[in-house]
């Protein structure tokens, strides 16, 4: 395992004036824990050209998936380029706008990026030599929360505070510097993930029905579940709504957030995997995260409170940047949630069963995986835990109470 030719990337900034002596490469995560690419841990030993002193830089190299079908499924020719653009163009634009508005708390909820490349031949084609070099967040004290457990209330508050800022800053740019937004930001917010073959994974409804019918409360709701699922499971063009539309992470679940602790208390969050960001309602990111990644017991007690916490942080950010917050009041925000709740449902229910509570430390699903294949479907049913079912039952019952089904 090796990563060739990273000297030229590092010498431009973080290792300027230093010579790379050695690069130790290992896998960063266990098999099956990163679905959209390959993550490598790099321990880079460098030597100062003048003093000859040596240092070790802890970094991460993000590469495209190894399997060709995964490269096609994740559309790496688009999404890999988008992630580089996020770090090289969008982050500096967000931070500069905050500085222009004399804000001291500059957004910093992502890893430092040391640079990247699409290939080693100078073309515009993303290949297996493509990589993005970033700060190793593990070495900085950040770790993923166990996806089988989920975020507790304190952890969710820390993340939602950052999510509100990540949504509010580009929205404020749109409101206060519309020309700049349309030229420098909006063109890049067009990465909605659409699978080429809509039916390549088959129909998961048979599996979903079997699970829901184990619950006396959810079984009778299956016809309503099926109606929503069938309407929104197919890829479709998102109809942008103003004025809430803003930067949307697009894949916000537990493995794409990392938390740092001090004396056992969560103090800082980092977001990762900026491959699928788009221009949508902030409600989509918010619901995706809450439904898939917050502990079910917490959701049962605090779901509505978490919505209000996020909204309070969101409008507070807008206010600090000099925006009129009346169009974004609580009533209008609730309407945003109502508009996108059904859109999130199909993704969240599938994701909870097959990804969040999927088996750990195993490779991804087979390249020919299909819910129409009884062997594949039975393998999932066998692996489904009681906690996974409880999460699914909660989502369905909550949606029914909200009249979203």
From TrEMBL:
<dbReference type="InterPro" id="IPR004119">
    <property type="entry name" value="EcKL"/>
</dbReference>
<dbReference type="InterPro" id="IPR015897">
    <property type="entry name" value="CHK_kinase-like"/>
</dbReference>
<dbReference type="Pfam" id="PF02958">
    <property type="entry name" value="EcKL"/>
</dbReference>
<feature type="domain" description="CHK kinase-like">
    <location>
        <begin position="132"/>
        <end position="320"/>
    </location>
</feature>
<protein>
    <recommendedName>
        <fullName>CHK kinase-like domain-containing protein</fullName>
    </recommendedName>
</protein>
<dbReference type="InterPro" id="IPR011009">
    <property type="entry name" value="Kinase-like_dom_sf"/>
</dbReference>
């Amino acid at each position: 395992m090796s990563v060739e030719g990273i000297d030229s990337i590092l010498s431009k900034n973080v290792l300027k004036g230093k010579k790379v002596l050695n690069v130790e490469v290992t896998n960063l995560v266990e098999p099956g824990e990163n679905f959209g690419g390959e993550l490598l841990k790099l321990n880079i030993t460098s030597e100062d050209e003048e003093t000859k002193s040596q240092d070790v830089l802890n970094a991460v190299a993000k590469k495209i998936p190894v399997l060709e079908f995964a490269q096609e499924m994740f559309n790496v020719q688009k999404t890999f380029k988008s992630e580089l653009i996020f770090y090289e163009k969008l982050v500096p634009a967000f931070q500069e706008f905050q500085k222009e508005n004399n804000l001291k708390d500059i957004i910093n909820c992502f890893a430092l990026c040391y640079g990247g490349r699409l290939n080693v031949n100078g073309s515009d084609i993303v290949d297996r030599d493509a990589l993005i070099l970033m700060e190793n967040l593990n070495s900085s004290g950040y770790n993923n929360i166990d996806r089988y457990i989920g975020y507790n209330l304190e952890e969710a508050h820390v993340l939602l505070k950052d999510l509100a800022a990540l949504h509010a800053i580009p929205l404020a740019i749109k409101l206060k510097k519309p020309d700049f937004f349309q030229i420098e930001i909006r063109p890049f917010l067009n990465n909605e993930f659409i699978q080429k073959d809509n039916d390549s994974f088959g129909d998961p409804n048979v599996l979903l029905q079997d699970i829901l019918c184990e619950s006396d409360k959810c079984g009778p709701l299956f016809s309503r579940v099926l109606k929503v699922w069938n309407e929104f499971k197919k890829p479709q063009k998102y109809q942008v709504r103003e004025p809430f539309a803003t930067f949307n992470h697009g894949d916000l679940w537990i493995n794409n957030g990392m938390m740092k602790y001090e004396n056992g208390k969560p103090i800082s969050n980092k977001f990762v995997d900026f491959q699928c960001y788009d221009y949508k309602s902030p409600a989509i990111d918010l619901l995706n995260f809450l439904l898939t990644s917050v502990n079910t017991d917490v959701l049962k007690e605090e779901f509505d409170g978490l919505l209000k916490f996020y909204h309070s942080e969101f409008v507070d950010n807008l206010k600090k940047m000099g925006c009129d917050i009346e169009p974004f009041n609580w009533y209008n925000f609730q309407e945003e949630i109502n508009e996108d709740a059904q859109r999130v449902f199909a993704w969240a229910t599938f994701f909870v069963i097959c990804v969040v509570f999927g088996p750990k430390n195993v490779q991804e699903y087979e390249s020919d995986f299909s819910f129409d294949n009884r062997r594949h479907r039975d393998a999932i049913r066998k692996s489904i835990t009681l906690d996974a079912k409880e999460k699914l039952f909660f989502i369905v019952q909550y949606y029914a109470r909200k009249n979203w089904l």
